[in-house]
Amino acid sequence: AQSVTQLDSHVSVSEGTPVLLRCNYSSSYSPSLFWYVQHPNKGLQLLLKYTSAATLVKGINGFEAEFKKSETSFHLTKPSAHMSDAAEYFCVVSFSGGYQKVTFGTGTKLQVIP
Amino acid sequence: ETGVTQTPRHLVMGMTNKKSLKCEQHLGHNAMYWYKQSAKKPLELMFVYSLEERVENNSVPSRFSPECPNSSHLFLHLHTLQPEDSALYLCASSQDRQGGQPQHFGDGTRLSIL
To answer: N or C: which end of chain B has fewer CB within 10 A?
Structure first.
């Protein structure tokens, strides 16, 4: 069985300050992990993915995430928030072998204060 | 056109109406998905198609009827819907159903049931 927990439903940061969105996962097998972003009235857009290569993954728009197996975490970070980063972010876990079983987190809404 | 396109973007219908949602992908993918996104609820996977065959149906009421005539097109036929069916319906595609494949999402159809 696999699961994913996004620890914060809402995060608020000031523009120009760092962003940290937390995600913990549980998977019996080697997981693939993803972060998606959803802007209002839009679909989900892939930010980055981890599939057992480098543990530090760089994505689009300056985001990155680090896979920490010992902590079963895959937190999303960005050094400096922009107003355009205000959106909802989803952490997703998928089983790497065999047929894909995808589990979505409940999402974290990021607010960026000017 | 590229990516995943969903039409219509907005749909208002009465409970006795029949309508269809359309999804088209131009990515050459072999797997397609329907999701329901309701406010304050996790993303719900409804149906999965792989090579035009339905491979997953997650206890969705029969008033939702999917159709996949070819690997590029996916429909969701709606009839006799209930007010609780009001939601954002998202279509996605992936290269195949192997684990580790990211999904590409359309912008969704916002469905409102009167």
So the answer is: N
